[in-house]
Amino acid sequence: MTGIVDYNAGNIKSVERALAAIGAEYRISKDPRDLAGTERIIFPGVGEAKFAMNELKKTGFDSFLRDWAHSGKPMLGVCLGSQVIFEHSEEGDTTCLGLIPGVVRRFPADFPARGLKIPHMGWNDVHAKNGGTALLRGIPDGTNFYFVHSYYVDPADPTVVTATADYGFPVPCAVKRGNIEAFQFHPEKSGTNGLRILANFTGVSLPAGMQGGASC
Amino acid sequence: MLKKRIIVCLDVKDGRTTKGVKFLDNVDIGDPVVMAAEYYAQGVDELVFYDIMASTRDRGPTLDLIGRVAEKVFIPFCVGGGISTVEDIKNTILAGAEKVSLNSPAVRNPDLIGEGAAIFGAQCIVLGMDAKRDPAMKSGYRVFINGGRVATELDALEWAIRAERLGAGEIVLNSIDADGTRDGYEIPLTRMISEHVGVPVIASGGAGTPEHMARVLDEGKADAALIASMVHSGEYTIGSIKAELSKLGVPVRP
User: Fold this and answer.
1) Which helix (H) or strand (E) holds B246?
2) Minimal-distance CA residue of chain B relative to A190
3) Which of A102, A170, B105, B113 is placed for a possible disulfide with A156 were both Cys, Cβ 3.0 to 4.6 Å?
4) Where do the domains of chain A lie?
5) Domain formed by A2-202, architecture
6) Which residue of chain B comes nearest to A17, CA vs CA?
């Protein structure tokens, strides 16, 4: 059973629909107590860091996630969920969960003048670093995933970065530290290869015929 | 590197996909859910649904359509048409859309852009803009609303810059002059807007061939190209377009 953390931060339903499509059992809840007994959790989210942290505090998910990090059970952060697991975000000068040492920075202000729009929005090829991650199993290096973000993670320990995507510099887009993994891109919106990541995480096999969204 | 996106637009009216020329003479061309699933299977990068009658009706059927698309299509999609309150934005996102496109309502109430961005982030708020050549305007282009029927006093460039400041995370720029002609995108307009804003610009209106798309993505500096007739007519598939673009040196997702 996979728990989905629902804390009013954007389109949590996309993750839910993706899990339903691949046949993974899940439980989605706004109440941490409902998710305590699950084997693994997905911590999604889109939107603004300060808003998200406030919602996490309101719902009690902030302390739930800190406890979860120590439990050793798998946790997958996605997009904003990959950012607020760090210590601090420049977005709204927000103190975050601090599950992984490091900060979240905005893309440099001179990016647009260099032809690099902010947000970094669209499909970009992802390349494994530091041995990669088991969650990308079955997916060729250089596969494109869907990104949309204006801030990026800057871990204190660069060896936690398991993949990067080039946008002005090699942007860390996957991190792993102990039982915590996180992706800046959206597996739930990246076609078949994204669904494959979610299948790898939840331990189901991707249903036959679930193709589409191009193969790479 | 970041790829140039190929986006298919489905104009929806009464639950069916339609296509018109210069915003007129809409004809029924199919079920939007079936069409979305087909373009997804072909490898489209993103979809836009534009409910061309939504402002005059209740939004329930549109929300239902969004839900049915979201169950089948695991790529981002944007919904526009008649979204005029924060509540509309919220309902559309929660129904399964990644982004909402604000067009006429953003002109009437510019604060809507910022209010939406404050809750869901700028990346969810797309400014939809219909522009038409007009030498009387400073940039040479005037903004129109209500599906291109009503002229405003807004200059296209000024409005794009202002919308970005207000919190729009992306701009879908539609040329009324080029829309439906299949003679090519309005390159000078697209380039001008794209060079003056820091957010991605999606070029819309006029696509007839992959060469047109390559031109607006290169010379026009667009980040994405929106198409409709090219694939709705069956003349091209997403795969054939991407193969052609690749040959022309445009970075696309295979």
Assistant:
1) helix B238-247
2) B75
3) A102
4) 2-202
5) 3-Layer(aba) Sandwich (3.40)
6) B71
